[in-house]
Amino acid sequence: MSRTRNVGVSIGAAGLLVASSFGSVAAQDLTPVSVVLQWVPQAQFAGYYAADALGFWEEQGLDVTVVDGGPDVAPQVEGSLPTGPEFAVSWVPRVLAVRDEGSDLVNIGQTFQRSGTLSVSWADNPVNSPEEFAGKRIGVWDFGNEFEVTAAARAAGLEPGEDFEKVIQPFDMSLLLNREVDAAEAMIYNEYAQVLETVNPETGELYQPEDLVVIDYNEVGTAMLQDAVHARASWLAEEGNEDIATRFLAGVYKGWAFCRDNPEECVQFTVDAGSTLGLGHQRWMMNEINPLIWPSPDGIGSMPLETYDTTVQIMLDAGLISEAPGDDAWRSDLTEAAWELLGDDVDLFGTDFVKGEVEVTPGGE
Q1: Which DSSP letter does residue 34 get?
Q2: Which of 52, 61, 116, 352 has a 20 to 30 A CA-CA distance from 219?
Q3: Entry pTM
Q4: pLDDT 10s digits, 7-17
């Protein structure tokens, strides 16, 4: 699925009026590019939908087609193809893996500064830390999504399959809800909410946060970098394409800044983009995605070096890459140039960001 919008939108609450012509930039003068996302439409990508809907890319002279990801779409693979989209939004470990196999994808904008990965257990059968995995059934996702959990276990001196049972779970929380595992992997913006959106059969009410125990891998020290913008080095080397990438990033960063300050509008943009998840679930997701980006102490899109080094080391230790990536695996100059384009009109740091509160709704509706 792909879509391109060139429609003017008025957002009164934000005091922002975007006209369809965007000043002197006529539609025929826009440079066409495309970006493939990590997954299906959801608030995880709200900043891109905002950039599209509000014309932030058109302001930069670009006509951007947003291509949905999904179970049959690997953005790190699509983005590596010479005929693929110019930009790909993917988790950093997945890109490091394809780079190790010869891809020339480069991280040009590290939007997510923190990991959203958790392990969740029941308060009446708590797994409080990776050290407590011993002798337990620990649910994880497959296909490389389990790296943070496995690395934390090994840091605690525990080996999957020997000291605890590693259970491959589906991409939902059914095993935890059915108590078939002692702890389950979850994204704070998605599967964790699925538990809270479920009725506790013993009380007839929704499960509450106090019913659960959460391990946050940012706190454990094995957090790995997730959503980032990538482009092919070979494409960037062609004349004019670094400028296009700079302008693309400027639209992305302005979109995420808008979603930080106007989350409800960005939930609607996500719904308009074709999300099949309920409105309540999208509100939760938007509220949890923002803290993964904001505050950005060094500016949105900057590389948190400590987490990057941890990501690389975990990949090496797991044998998922044969050697550490070179210095050309990521670059900051295009992000810095995008900041220059945006100037003082956009808050690139979100220093005063405060996470909001949302009401959990049954089934996420």
Answers
A1: E
A2: 352
A3: 0.91
A4: 233 223 233 32
